[in-house]
Each structure stands twice: as C-alpha cells, then as structure tokens.
Input
Amino acid sequence: MTNSAQYGLPNNSGDARRDYPAFLDGRVRPMLIGGEWVPSLSGKSFESRNPANGELLATIAEGDSADIDRAVLAARKAFDGPWRTMKPDERQMILLRLADLVERHFDELSLLDTLDMGAPLRHTRGSKRHMVGLLRYFASMAVSLYGQTSSTSLGGELFACTLKEPVGVVGAIVPWNGPLMAAIWKTGPVLATGCTLVLKPAEDASLTPLRFGELLLEAGVPPGVVNIVPGFGATAGAALAAHTGVDKVSFTGSHLTGQQIVRASAGNLKRLSLELGGKSPNIVFADADLEVAASAAATAAFANAGQICSAGTRLFIQRPVFDEVVEAVARAARGLKVGAGLDEQTDIGPLVSRKQLDRVSGYLRAGREEGARALAGGERLDGDAHRNGFFVPPTVFTDIRDDMRIAQEEIFGPVVAAIPFDTLDEVVERANATPYGLGAGVWTRDVGRAHALAPRIRAGSVWVNCYNTMDPSMPFGGYKMSGYGRESGTQQLDDYLNVKALWIRRD
Ligand code: ADP
Output
C-alpha cells in the first residue's frame, strides 16, 4: 500500500482515527535528549489538539528550564565529541539519508502538520519538493564551505586566509505555522556546518518535529547533535534564549517575542538570527495581467489561513483598476472552501488555536469599528460545520486609511486590506510606511518599472509577477523589524559559521 493510501482521508466508518499515523498511539510523547527519548524531569505534560474540531491528538512531555539545561549539556558534549572531527562528506551523507527519509515519510509528516496546526492537506503535501530540496541543498553545502586567501597589504612573507568554523551549540525556537518547514530550516544548516542543536518546537505544533526527530536518529545523526525539547515559550523558550551554554539562537516568530529574545541573549552576547513578522505590500499596477494578479493576491493573503509571515496583507491597487481587481480578489475569497484540513476540498483550514482566533477576531472588529468595509468575510464562522474549530473566512477589507490597525499591524489571519494608489513614488512611500520589511509583491508588465521599484522597497524579498516564491538557494529574511539573518542560501550557512583569520609567517 502506498503512503498516500495508508494516510488518506479518515473514512466515514465512525473511526476517523483509523488512518492516523501510528505515531499518535496514545502514549505521552517524550523529548529527545542525547540520542534518547526521555520524559520531562518535572513529569509534566501538555495536550496537542486538532484545531479543526478540538479532538485530542497526543499528550507531550513538557520541557522546562531543567530539561533545557540537560539538552544544552548534551549538545555541548556532542559538539566537543567525535562530531567535531566527523568529515564533511559524512555529514553530507546523513543529510542525504534524512532527505530520503523525509521524502519517503512525507505523507505522514504532512498529515501530522495538518492535524496539529490545521493547514489543509493540499497545502502541507504541496511543499514536498521544497522540503526535500532544502535537505539536499544543505547536504551539498556540507561539502561546499570555504574561506578565502588574501594577498594582504603586507606582502609575501605572510600567508593569510580565513577559515569557516561552526559557531557551536545552537538553540532554535520556532513557531507553529509550518512545523516541518521550521524543523528542516533549523536542522539543515546545523548538520551542514557541524554545529549541534537544541530545538524548542512551538507548543501548538510539536508533533511533526518530534516525528522528524525519529527520522534524524534513523538517518544516523549522532547522539546529542540534535535535541528536541517541547514546552512553552515563557519557560522552555526563555530558558533556551538566556542559556549561557548556547552560542547562537535562531528564532522564528513574532517581533515582540523576538525583542524578548534579544534581551535574554545579552548574558553571553550570543549570536542571533531573527525571522519575525511582516505586513507585506503587494502592489498591482494597472498594466499588469489583472486576472493573474488578482488570483495570486488571494493566494498571497489567504494561503495557510494567512498564517505566513510574508503573507501579502496590504494589497495596493492602482486606482483605474481598483474596483475590478478588488472585486476579483473578493470573488476569489468567497469561492474558497473553509473547513477541516483533512478534507481534500478545503482551501482554508482553521486558525491554529483559540488564542489566534481571538486575536484575528479582534482585528476584524477593529477594522469594522475604524470604518473599513468587508467585501468578503469579516466575521468568524460558527455554523454547524465550523462550530468546534477556529474558523475565519478569507476577508477583504476596503475603505482603508493607512493609519488603521488592520493596515499597520500583523494580523496573522486570512485578512487583506485593499488600498488604492496613484503613482509609483506614492506607493513606494506607503508600502515602506510600516515597521516591517519582510516581503513585497509587484505586478506589472513594465520591466523598467519593476527594476525601478525593487531597490526602493525596504524588504528582504521582492517578488515581481510572482509571490512567496522560495528556493533553497535564495535567502529569505527581513529588513527593519522583520528581523535579521537569513533562512536558505549561502547567507543562512554563514549565520551558523564563525570566521577565523589565520596568519602564517613564511620565514
Ligand atoms: P505566537 O504568539 O504566535 O505563539 P511567538 O513568537 O510568541 O508567536 O512564538 C514563537 C515561538 O517562540 C514559540 O515556540 C514560543 O513558545 C516561543 N516563545 C514565546 N515566548 C517566548 C519567550 N519569552 N522566550 C523564548 N521563546 C518564546
């Protein structure tokens, strides 16, 4: 039987769980420390529930600062052990085996993502090429790290070069909006560069990272090289961010938590990379292919129920085509099916948690109160089909002023603010007028205009006639309060490496 048949839709026989992965076997899921699956020292655990219907999926050992301590110790021991001298091509082989395992188990991993955080199966399964590709890319980078030689100004009696060395023990603190993606983005560069890792998954989505941990061991990752400690932000997360035995923290999440992590890192001045929020502009000029642009604008705003840091949430449309485009986006929004992620027909799943539901509902209310008008959506769905889950319909707001909260703050839900503009200079200024700078979209058939605009947008990615396109070789990250450091690309690897200057006198 193929995996997709094995992990197909729950049948209608009354036992919906029959097709769930064996991983959800009812036992308390332990944490991974020093190559062993162990309970938390406190004996505490927490629940993982399906946001589509509230069902209990699993109980998970809850790590706190004592567990983080022993995980950091294990990571340090591994960093100082045989891992340090393991040859790059051996690390490459581990990454290649891991890529094969992730490819083979992809249906199971994407089903776990869907069950745990709500994204439609179509969405989670659709990321296979990118996920596996990332691991193969990191495998190739394991044998492609090099420094430079310099002739220096001092002449021939000195040989001078730079060496790249792993930064050490890395702490990774990740969100729930792409659990497998987060695990891969944080583990890949660690294995490629020879660092070791303590990964703290999000409390709302720990299942896939834990299953991924089993695959790490199967791929031959030595004990202690990757440790996985689930738990809450205020306890496990804060302990990891402050730990003086950690050399670098790689964090993905909200900018408020990012600021706390910066403060917590001061004790040992650890290195940081921060991939934070966004309020990304998506700019449609009148000369664009409007049908394509409108359909892409809906995807940019609503994919993963808007729970993507680079979602295109401010849709700037040039005035002559404003009505046409905004109506097309609203039509697309009304046509999207909102429902449980397991349903193959679902376009938009539930939000991940009640906390997110309350947060997004608060913004819908704020939008209305500030005078915005909802052309589609606008209210939480709580009819029979949606009552037990955290469902919000794709929402298109118009009549926006730039100072409204829904035009300024990251909502992290399926909500887009559509805003007319007249000129290029004006849209550049307004697009840049938020504290964030993660991504931006530009839709035009005028290549000159695209070139003129791209350098003026203060964001880490600019997509012209496409949106949210990603590749393992291309850096992804923020300007301004969207953070610093990059995921993917050689730039990400550099974030995990120290540079040493080596001088040798020749005589
Ligand atoms: P959200 O509010 O959507 O959960 P966060 O940025 O708070 O987004 O969460 C992202 C990750 O940061 C999660 O793994 C969470 O547990 C962790 N986290 C939250 N607060 C802290 C903190 N004070 N220190 C370290 N990690 C934290």
In short: The longest strand covers residues 158-166. The chain has two domains: 27-276+485-500, 281-472. Confidence is low (pLDDT under 50) at residues 1-14. Residues 173-175, 200, 202-203, 232-234, 237-238, 241, 253-254, 257, 260-261 surround adenosine-5'-diphosphate (CB under 6 Å).
